[in-house]
Specification:
Structural class: alpha/beta
Helix content: 40-55%
CATH topology of the largest domain: Aldehyde Dehydrogenase, Chain A, domain 1
Distance between the termini: 26 Å
CATH superfamily of the largest domain: Aldehyde Dehydrogenase, Chain A, domain 1
CATH class of the largest domain: Alpha Beta
Number of strands: 17
Radius of gyration: 23 Å
Shape: globular
Strand order of the largest sheet: 10-11-12-9-8-13-14
């Protein structure tokens, strides 16, 4: 079979000239494979090793986290947990559009597409990130080693601007399209038609929050609190709160609190003081500080809620809500702007949860309690319940989607 027989057609030369190829080939072979193939696991394991050996990786926690995620041992655990029966095969060619504000997301999307048994075209963010360079160069080093010719021919990591002609072309040849981005981005991409059998998975604009019982903080020693503050920092500041899974609103659940109001406030202060101490390493450029202050002022000017503000220099703004009159996903922070509200019962939260709410990060609250809240109130929102520090951890289920199942087909 010739190369052209295995592809959906030859890309017009005028389109190729608008694309910057970062790794792989311009026209990948869309041949489906078995999910979690030994070749895919071995390749991603070598990629993890290449990232560990790169001296630039330690400076970027998100790159290091991806390398840790795609190591061979972790992938084998995923495969075992998935319980594949050998009756699935990839769809063929997957076209991924990565979000513009989360630099490492494209690498997870590529890895999941590969693990599902697909060839992959991955459009990276047009904005330049050092993480993108590190990851693409690592992919290219592993592919250039000659050990994975089939994966090289099934990989195309590209960069291009807002060029509908290019997106039209990729959309016309793909068997699956994966869109990461805000609602407007998804609608714009959907103007590019896909085939009738093409599957589309859209990860839309989402929102996340945190749930804390104050007694959990009160019972922590200084070392435990420092670890919690680090996990909270990693969930929020590392992504400038731009990730869909980064918490913006903290709910203090007081149903089991037996101390005084003053003691409870001291516990809350203790938590935020640990966070701001951890945030001392955060690089807050003037433009970020200006945008954060502007966001705060706009909220205070427009809100019907009663609220008080406490500022910890420019690193952290803490907006304490006495009333809660809006949907939870409208309380949006950025660059270290957080909202908080006390609630005497989880049931108080139910009416404020919309389908935009993705992740609930918890401390002192069990997953079972949140699942019960969702089921009893028939909520459309909250897809994930994880401890603080794990909100950014990619899994095989994301936004409620079984990604491997969505990007492969059952045989028999």
């Amino acid at each position: 079979m010739s190369r052209n027989d295995q592809t959906a057609g030859q890309m017009p030369k005028e389109l190729r000239g608008r694309i910057r190829l970062l790794s792989g080939v311009y026209e990948p072979l869309g041949l489906p494979a078995e999910p979690f193939s030994e070749e895919a696991i071995s390749f991603l394991g070598d990629l993890a090793r290449a990232l560990r050996e790169d001296t630039r990786t330690p400076a970027y926690t998100d790159v290091a986290a991806f390398g840790f995620w795609c190591r061979r041992a972790n992938l084998l655990r995923m495969k075992e947990r998935l319980g594949l029966s050998g009756t699935r095969i990839g769809l063929g060619l997957a076209f991924h559009i990565a979000p513009s504000n989360v630099p490492v997301n494209f690498a997870y999307s590529y890895a999941l597409g590969l693990l599902a048994g697909n060839a992959n075209i991955v459009r990276v963010p047009s904005k330049e990130f050092a993480q993108t360079d590190i990851l693409c160069q690592a992919v290219e080093r592993v592919l250039a080693g000659g050990g994975y010719p089939a994966i090289r021919e099934a990989t195309s990591i590209v960069a291009y601007g807002h060029d509908k002609d290019v997106t039209d072309w990729y959309s016309s040849i793909c068997d699956a399209r994966i869109i990461w981005g805000g609602d407007e981005t998804i609608q714009a991409i959907r103007e590019s038609a896909i085939g009738s059998r093409c599957r589309e998975v859209a990860f839309a604009d989402r929102y996340s929050l945190g749930l804390i019982r104050p007694e959990a903080i009160a019972n922590m020693d200084e070392g435990q609190l420092t670890q919690l503050a680090k996990r909270f920092y990693d969930d929020t500041y590392l992504m400038d709160q731009n990730a869909c899974s980064s918490p913006h609103l903290i709910i203090w659940l007081t149903d089991q609190w037996r101390g005084t109001q003053q003691e409870k406030e001291k516990v809350q202060d203790r938590f935020w003081e640990a966070v701001v101490k951890m945030a001392g390493k955060y690089v807050l450029e003037p433009i970020k500080a200006s945008e954060k202050y502007d966001r705060l002022c706009n909220f205070l000017a427009d809100t019907e809620d009663e609220a008080t503000v406490r500022r910890y220099g420019n690193l952290l703004y803490r907006v304490s809500l006495q009333t809660f009159k809006r949907p939870a996903d409208t309380y949006r922070g950025i660059f270290g702007l957080f909202f908080e509200k006390e609630m005497e019962s989880l049931q108080e939260l139910a009416s404020a949860v919309t389908k935009k709410v993705q992740t609930a990060a918890v401390c002192g609250i069990s997953q079972e309690e949140v699942v019960q809240l969702i089921q009893e109130n028939h909520l459309k929102g909250i897809d994930r319940v994880v401890p603080f520090g794990e909100t950014l951890s990619m899994d095989l289920v994301w936004d409620g989607y079984d990604i491997i199942g969505s990007l492969s087909r059952r045989i028999g």
